[in-house]
Write a structure and sequence with these properties.
This protein is 41% helix and 18% strand. It is an alpha/beta fold. A seven-stranded parallel β-sheet has the order 3-2-1-4-5-6-11, sandwiched between helices. It has a three-stranded mixed β-sheet with strand order 12-9-14. The structure holds nicotinamide-adenine-dinucleotide.
Length: 331
């Protein structure tokens, strides 16, 4: 198939491009490189362009005629979305509507959307299944939920079929060491702790040790990037085989505490990490863990890298590579 990967130069999108190419799909990546990296797109066609640019979208669809679209492009920082909701709604909502418009114009009706656990807000129960109420706590989560609603309406009105995948925490890196996480600023726990282990960062802050969890630190669900991408391939098959529009939670199913992640990093890296304990942060629930049973049964998705040590090992391999690259640049 010809798959258009929007945001394919970013962390998750770049791993997806690699997996699609390995599965013999033709890939067109569209990315404005606002947070992505050109060298992370390892093959296929690359178009530098912005979702806000309707002429560019038109040209991409006219020239490449994709059969399906995977949409990873958005702004992703929760804190920033509170301070600058305007740019979040514009990029995550308005620009996604542009993309859907052009898909309808070219009769492309298979869409896979990067949604998020942030559509749930403070959980009533864990693990969180798809029936859990949606009460996002910030503009980022609300922008994603808006698109979920748009997609449900477009399925009914226009027969545009979509799969929304609500990722919990994407983590890890390409097991072959070719790709990894390169956010700037980095806000995700595992790369932050790895940077503290490698010396690229002085310390790591732990926000709260008095939660109602076995070791007192927050528990989160980390899903390996390869498993996350394989769920997209499964979702593509599902749509190709006539599957109806649907939403799935994607996680590991077992959460890990901040302390467990710290321990795993120190074990894998052999380095001691300097930890600074701070107070709890507003809006940080004790546990956020996905119930991903529906993705397993309906999409026939089979995650393989579910243990924390493997996730950390692959991410550490990437961190070492980033460190080498940085030292070569400064030499
Ligand atoms: N990383 C996670 O743990 C996580 C968790 C839940 C959901 N998600 C969602 O997954 C998706 C990918 O996340 P990521 O971590 O890979 O982020 P990322 O920032 O690494 O990748 C996003 C990519 O989209 C591109 N982009 C942004 N706006 C664009 C525009 N208007 N036009 C063209 N390209 C544009 C960026 O340049 C970047 O390459 C996002 O939609 C995010 O909300 C990520």
């Amino acid at each position: 198939m010809k798959v258009l990967v929007v945001g394919g130069a970013g962390y998750i999108g770049s791993h997806m491009v690699k997996m699609l190419l390995n599965a013999n799909h033709q890939v067109i990546t569209l990315d404005n490189l606002s947070s992505g990296h050109r060298d992370a797109v390892i093959g296929g066609v690359f178009v530098e362009g912005d979702l806000a640019d309707n002429d560019c979208l038109y040209r991409v669809f006219e020239e490449h005629k994709p059969d399906a679209v995977m949409h990873f492009a958005s702004f992703i920082q929760v804190g920033e979305s509170v301070r600058k909701p305007d740019i979040y709604y514009r990029n995550n909502v308005t620009n996604t509507l542009n993309l859907l418009d052009i898909m309808l114009k070219f009769n492309v009706k298979k869409f896979i959307f990067s949604s998020t656990a942030a559509v749930f807000g403070e959980p009533d129960y864990v693990p969180i299944d798809e029936a859990h109420p949606n009460r996002p706590l910030n503009p980022y989560g609300r922008s994603k939920l808006m698109i979920e609603h748009v997609l449900a309406d477009y399925a009914k009105a226009f027969d545009l079929r979509s799969v929304c995948l609500r990722y919990f925490n994407a983590a890890g890196a390409d097991p072959e060491g070719q790709l990894g996480e390169r956010h700037d600023p980095e806000t995700h726990l595992i790369p932050l702790i790895l940077q503290a282990a490698s010396g690229r960062r002085e310390n790591i802050q732990v926000f709260g040790r008095d939660y109602d969890t076995p070791d007192g630190t927050c528990i989160r669900d980390y899903i390996h990037i390869v498993d996350l991408c394989s769920a997209h391939l499964a979702a593509l098959d599902y749509l190709v085989n006539g599957g109806e529009s649907d939403r799935f939670n994607l996680g590991n199913g077992s959460g890990f505490s901040v302390q467990e992640v710290l321990d795993a990093v120190q074990k894998v890296s052999g380095k001691q990490v300097k930890v600074i304990d701070g107070p709890r942060r507003d809006g940080d629930p004790a546990r956020l863990v996905a119930d991903a049973k529906r993705a397993r049964s309906v999409l026939n998705w089979k995650p393989v890298f579910t243990d924390l040590e493997t996730i950390v090992k692959h991410a550490w391999q990437w961190e070492i590579k980033c460190l080498d690259r940085a030292s070569k640049v400064s030499a």
